[in-house]
Design brief:
Helix content: 40-55%
Strand order of the largest sheet: 1-4-5
Distance between the termini: 19 Å
Largest sheet: 3 strands, parallel
CATH superfamily: 5'-nuclease
Number of domains: 1
Length: 129
Amino acid sequence: MTVLDASALLTYFFGEPGAQEVGQRLPGSVIHTVNYAEVLSKLAERGLPPQAAEQQLEQVGLLQVIRIDPGAPEDAVAVARLRPLTRTAGLSLGDRYCLALAERLGVPAATTDRVWGTLSLGITIEVLR
């Protein structure tokens, strides 16, 4: 199991460099609801309404192989704890939710954001491009 960052799912959806690496991790993967909201928001920015985006994600099979984790109260505590540790790398709130979920589940976090590779947080991070 791997926790996907929004950047990873978007990379796969758009067939960008790193899509194959993301695809290998899709079956059984999980994404935090905050990161799923990021995906839908990015697609909305490109003119795809959220309901249509969900339909497309389902049509290409992504929603059948990815579990959306609704989150837990302890995620908020972990996100806050990660803030000073990741601030210099510029990680967003959503990025930290991905890391908090990976930490809670004890599995790697996958991203296509290279700056994550500079972090040393005790959480396994897989940079996929």
